Amino acid sequence: MSTSPATTAPELPVTDRTRLTRYGHRQVTDRAALHDVLDSSLVAHVAVVGESPTPAAVVLPIAAARDGESLLLHGSTGGGLLRAAAAGQTVTATVTVLDGVVYARTVFDSSMNYRCAVVYGVPTVVPDEEKEEALRVLSEHLMPGRWDEVRRPTRRELAATLVLRLPLTEASVKVRAAGASEDAAEDDAVWAGVLPLHTAVGAPRTGDDVPGGVPVPPSVTAGAQRLAGWLPPYR
Length: 235
Known about the structure:
By secondary structure, the chain is of the alpha+beta class.
């Protein structure tokens, strides 16, 4: 069961930070679109501004999963970025799903089709009594069904893991899902269109230390089927 705050409105509020200033017509304020982007990816790029030795923006890819109206981020308790975020720093988390490369009749007009979400906020540390459930949510997003196939995390493993909850209260979504946009004067004898992109799933590779006869578990099959189903909405 989700322990994240319930949504307050179906539309995302537009703030000074979330308002698009470039191609504003591509901004989508439907909260369901935000959910779609976050649910269609396994990784969020999370940024904080470091203080030592020289202030600089630090961006790291972190395994993430949406839990209701928050984004769960997890990593080692020794990780500097997560510890800075846990101390109350504002973070920016970005998730991008690339759906296609747009071939126009000029390089200038060529583009990409994508779904992108940017979330701003101050994350909170998931308390110890809720950490195992948060890790289950993360596990089910990354490897659906795997949680029930393996043992539960030990106390030592839980203590070594930091889980943050970033609320989805301030976020922007930008979507491009169209063909080439260009000057009608260009030569129409030159091909233009979209090269769709999607996640390709390979065959499972059994570890060298797995005894013969151990079958590939249902979680691997389920994960492969879900990843293969993450197709772009525009073709």
